[in-house]
Amino acid sequence: MKLTASKKAIWHYIKITLLVFGISGLWQCMHSLILPMVVLDFASETQKNTWLGLMTFSGLIIAMLAQPVAGAISDRSNLGWGRRKPFIIAGVAGLLAFMPVIGVATSFTVLFIGYCALQFFSNAAQGPYQAFIPEMVPANERGKASGVKSFLEILGGAALLFPISRFMDSYSLTGEDKWLWFSILLLGGIILVLMLYTVIAVKEPRPQKIPTNNVIPAWIKSFNINIKANRAFLWFLASRLAVFMGLTTIQQFALYYFRDVVGVSDPAAATTRFLAIAIVFMLLAVFPAGYLSDYIGRKKICMLAALTGAAGILIILTNSSDIVLMIGAAVIGLALGAFNSTNWALATDLVNKGEEAKYLGIANMATAGGGALARLIGPVIDFFNGIGLNLGYTVMLLACIAYFIAGALLLIKVRTGSESKA
Question: Is the pLDDT assigned to residue 105 strictly greater than 80?
Fold first, then answer.
């Protein structure tokens, strides 16, 4: 039975974005479950938010630098078997080599170094990998392709959160290292399989030959943007950074929120339930939002999504009961599903032709930058918790509302050709 053109297109989009299933699942589980639990082995109760926040902040600064540098060098490489695949292979190989450090860490310093190495290698692979959509998908189809990418990212986090939460709750209750190792091996194995599939299945377009003496110096120009010609892209970056500050704050400190404010005995499982509800509603939103963005424009949906995210946080702020938290999770999920899908499509519209990996690497600097800046609220949480019982978590939620609203307002300044596909 022959596939229709539409089904062939969807399968193509899945093929070029499938690796994000594993990478997204890794970082969702690492930031939401594994690191918060492992940090408790080294940090005191009064300093856990600070230590977790500063460690992940440092790693994400490395991520911000690694993606656009790897992307820019990839844009100008002349390797016979592809501009992107060699970087994907090398990055994933380094990632897998350093994942065991999380399991063998005997001090916070070793954990810190291992985490930063994971960020470097993961993003060295992701920078070049991001170029597949603008290189292999027509401009009028990128909303759908970005919807597929967002769906796989969300699905990866959802599918892997459940087994990892079981492992990490067992690790917390028993102190047995085998549960941590089960988590590491499962995540690493999935990424390895998906990387091998990507390298074998994806056929890169043949690039124009570029003088080889320009390849290595490309890193010097990795962050070079013509501000006058790319003003819309800069406003886009600021908006994306603000929204991801709100998203990452909730993701990173959710486990401690459930442990300290809600008072659950199984914080990893409670965090997973919260994230699972958010993820289900994210999945419901990504395809409709991506599809609509090809017709009514990206910017309107992105702005509405960011404001909806603020409303979801406001719901949580009003009450910490289970049902209210789950309603808030659903609203946040709808918002972030719509935002992720349409915002990435907007990014692919704004990149310069021939520099796709570089510009999408810079776009993900906003993702990583928002995540990094969000972590700096860790010491703030601990400070205000010292003033009043759980006051720091109230400050955290208010900050999230401000981040989402700022992200929506900054998009007003984005101007492209048609609504402009903004």
Answer: yes
> Are the C-beta atoms of 286 and 341 separated by less than 8 Å?
yes
The DSSP result for 237-303, as a single string, is: HHHHHHHHHHHHHHHHHHHHHIIIII--S-HHHHHHHHHHHHHHHHHHHHHHHHHHHHHH-HHHHHH
- Taking the C-alpha atoms of residue 89 and residue 191, their distance in angstroms, rounded to an integer, is 11
Q: Of 343, 353, 352, whose CA–CA distance to 235 is shortest? A: 343
- The pTM for the full model equals 0.72
Q: Report which of 262, 267, 252, 279 is spatially closest to residue 371, judged by C-alpha positions.
A: 252
Cα three-residue angle 268-125-253, rounded to 5 degrees: 25
Residues 6+ apart with CB under 8 A from 208: none
Which pair of structure tokens corresponds to residue 381?
A: 């949480």
Per-residue tokens: 253 = 């400190």
412 CB contacts (<8 Å, ≥6 apart)?
Answer: 303
| pLDDT tens per residue across span 126-181 | 888 888 888 888 877 877 787 788 788 878 888 898 899 889 988 988 888 999 99
Asked if 110 and 101 count as a contact pair (C-beta separation under 8 A), the reply is yes
Q: Which domains does the chain have, with CATH numbers?
A: 13-203+225-413 (1.20.1250.20)
